[in-house]
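Bump. Still looking for Low-density lipoprotein receptor C-alpha cells.
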Amino acid sequence: MCSCECPSPFHQCRGHPNRCISPIWVCDRNEDCPEGDDEEHCGFWGKKKTLPPALICPVKHQLCRGTINDCVPLEYLCDTEKDCPEGDDEENCFGRLATNDQ
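Sorry for the wait, here they are.
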C-alpha cells in the first residue's frame, strides 16, 4: 500500500493516495476528486491551500467569495450593486454605501 503524499501545492484526494490534483481545481465548483473532497470547505478564503487572493486578482481588485477567479474592482465595493455571485461585494460596508440611484 502506498503512503504517498502529494507535493505542495497539490491537493491529495481523500481515500485515493495516488490522486493529486492541481490547486486551481480546488474550489472551482467541479468535483475532480472521486469523493468530491476538492469542493469541500470552500468558504471565502478558508478555501483549501490554494493561492491567496492577492496572487489571483489584479491590483486594486477583490476576489469574490466562493470563486477562484471572479475579481471585482475596488470601486465596485459597496456601490449598492451586487457584482459578485454571492453579493459579498456589498457586505460589511458600514456606512460606505454609495448614494447612486438604482
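The longest helix spans residues 53-56.

Edit: fixed formatting.
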